Amino acid sequence: MAVRLEIDSRTVELPAGQTVFEGAERAGVRVPTSCHKNGKCRECLVEVLEGMELLSPRSPEERHLEGAFRLACRARVEGAGGRVRCQTLRRGAMRIEEEGTVARGAAAPLDPAVRRDGDWVLLDGRPVERSRGPILGVAADVGTTTVVLRLVDLETGANLGSRAFENPQRFGGSDVMARIHYDTLHPGRLLQRTLLGYLGHAIEDFGVDPRAIYEIVVAGNSTLRDLLFGISVRSIGQRPYRSLVEEEWEAGRRWTTSLEAPARKLRLPAHPAARVYGLPLVRRHVGADAAACLLAVDWAREDRLVGLMDIGTNTELLVGGRGRLLAASCPAGPAFEGGLISCGMPGLDGAIEAVRIEADGSVSCQVIGGGEPRGICGSGLVAVLGELLRTGRMNGLGRLADESSRFHVDRARGISLTEADLSQLAQAKGANVAGLAIVLKQAGLGLDDLEVFYLAGGFARHLDIDAARRIGLIPDLPDERFLRIGNASIEGAAIALLSVSRRRELEELVKTAVHVELEQDEGFFDAFVDGCLFAPARGPRGRAAREEEEEEQEAARGS
User: Fold this and answer.
1) Would you state the pLDDT for residue 558?
2) pLDDT at 336
3) Is residue 100 part of a domain?
4) Do 399 and 270 have their domain in common?
5) Which of 211, 249, 372, 517 is most buried per CB count within 10 Å?
6) Is residue 554 part of a domain?
7) CA dihedral 176, 182, 184, 188 (to 10 degrees)
8) pLDDT, position 79
9) Helices 419-443 and 378-390: crossing angle, nearest 10°?
10) Same domain, residue pair 413 and 430
């Protein structure tokens, strides 16, 4: 009797003895592999959501995996009947932000490191190939949850296509600290090998001659960037949370925190002389992805006071302008990406992304893909919180008015939020709010001093601004001061790919950054507690408000 295998929403009958990989092939689901199903490449990861007991025990090739993860080529059906439900880590239905907005004058001059001189292709002025063919480059944004690639024509600057997939390193943990721990305990650079394998497949999917790719520019947080280049990340996981590269720079042994490596060393499909360039770090956990955002918003030429927040598992904050740059990272955790929430899920088809509580108490939902809801993604969670607060069904402490301590978003399908879920979301929000308050304080600024507040990342792109402001996830500023810029990291990586002058400019800009160690601030705990309240985030008063108060006090003394 066969087992019913459901993989990436496709179903096939699988007899005993066959592997999940064989079932995926029959179902028409592509599972990444570089070793032809012999267990060596460790790329054919699947997450088993149901029916693990119907599969063979883990093989020696799977000893690095824990929890729900298996290698599709090693996991064989042993049960007689039943259902195995699993998913690959290349789910095409996942909503991944592949585009961003380049702010103001950030469009770069076209002066790439790779150019043509007659019949020759030059890299940094050195001839590497005699060719009349295309000159291409790849920009990559390696995020904790998702990875985005962009293929670029280096002669025209044209965007030739994008590819996106879930970061397969998820088997090592959902956040950077978990992956640091995993990489420290497991030899063989498994996280690096798996990620590079997936990157290689994504580049091949562009369908171009890899010999025409001469440079790859990578943005990512400090941990993910260093993992990609094969550098130990142990030091990033312990105080003072510095990359080994940053330590060498601070000691004067390097002039920059950027990285370079031959593409062939990383086994990426490209020209034999191609280079992989990792953007510089800002400071500590504020990594090369934040540096890429600086390029996308043209921070070096910013004459206004601005803030930038990229909300995620590790939220990055940048504040400054007018020659200043303060940076901090907030360990918010995965709650607003659906992690640790009972009905949470990523931005896949079936995720509730918007919610409205009507006057009669009924709940209407907007679902990604338009089908039946299966859970709630980040933007939906913010919407639910905003509606609960607006209608008085939740107080500022996160306590529900309903005595059942549970709010049913879709009762028929069992989708609900508990007070434990609200607590997780409050703590994630609290870290972000406290971070912004402390950075502003150390900058001597208030919220009303910020003329522009950039919201970066895919989560922010789909955020209900009113709901986010109501619960205090984002600052209490007028609508016109918010600017959503999408995946600014991939835009910044593309700018660096197309412009050596902007790349060098960034190298110097990040050296001016002042890192704010949030937990070292004496007011951190109080700011965190205040940030956990579901209420508009007022933050410190700005200069104008302080000056007005001082004038009033002076007038009162004079009278």
Assistant:
1) 64
2) 81
3) no
4) no
5) 249
6) no
7) -120
8) 78
9) 90
10) no
